[in-house]
Amino acid sequence: MVNKEYLAKWIEEYLFENSSIFQKLLSFLLFHLTVVYCFLAFLKKSFNLSYIPRIPVISIGNLTVGGSGKTPVTIELAKKYQKSAVVLRGYKRKSKGLVVIKDWERILCGVDVSGDEAMLYAKALKNSLVIVCEKREIAIEKAYSMGAKVVFLDDGHSKYHIKKMDILIKPFPEPANKFCLPSGAYRASYKEYKSADLIIDEKSDIKRKTIVSNPTEKMVLVTAIAKPKRLDEFLPKVCAKVYFEDHHFFTKNELEEILKKYDAASILCTGKDAVKMEGFGLKLSVLELDIELKKDIKIAVDAYIKDY
Question: If you classify domain 208-292 with CATH, what class do you get?
Fold first, then answer.
C-alpha cells in the first residue's frame, strides 16, 4: 500500500517542480485531460453574474492548488474592521451545510466541525464572524443578517457568480509550468491574473516575520500544510521534519510516536496545525506568523468597501 504522506509529497513535487523526466512525460501524457479541464473552467466562468451581495465582499484567492498564504493575508485584512466576517467552505470538516463557527463573542464548536482553517480564523480574529458553507452566497447572507459590514471570502476566485473584489495571490516560487490540472498546478488559466482586481505578489508585496512560542531545545517539526518546504526559511533548528497531507487530522497516538521516535521535547507546528493538536495535552511549540502587506493593498481594499 502506498504511504499517503509519500504520495502527497510526490504529487506536490510533480505539480510544482516537474523536474524529473518521468514527471515531464506524465505531464505531457495528461495534457488532453488538461484541455478538457480548461474548457469546463471556461464554461463555468462564462455564466453571468447572478448574486450581488448587500455588503462588500473581498475575495482572497489563488490560481494554483496548494498554499500561497491566503489565510494570513485574509487575517491581516479582516482584523482591521470591527464588523467583518470570514466566509469559507471549511475543507475536510466533519459537518455539512452552513455552520457559524464564531459569533461576535465566542467560538461555538470544535475543530472537527469547523475544519482547521476556519478554527484558525476564529482564534485569530476577535472581532469577526467566521462562517463555513459549501454555498458561499448563503453564508454571506447569514453574515449580513448577523450584522456584518464586510465579508472576506477565503478562496473565492472561482465563485464567478458572486459580485466581489477579486484579489489573487501570485505564489513564489511559481510552478515550473503554466499548465492547468492535471498537467500542472493551475486551477484556472494563468491569463486570469489579468482579470483580477488586485494581485498580491508573494515575493514582493508580503513581508513575513515569525516567532516560536514555547520553544524547547529539541523540537520536531510536524505539519500538515500544502508545500511545507516553504517553512524552511523561517525554521529554527529542528531534530527532524515530518510532513502529512494538507488538512490531515492528527491523532494523539501518532504524535506521541513521533515524539518518541526522535526523542523530541516538543512538537513544532504552524498555527493551522496547532488547532488540531492542542487538545491532546502534548508539548507544542508554535511557529507564529506575522505578515505586513504593502500599504497600497490596504488602501485599495478600503476604497472598494467605501465605494460599494
Answer: alpha beta
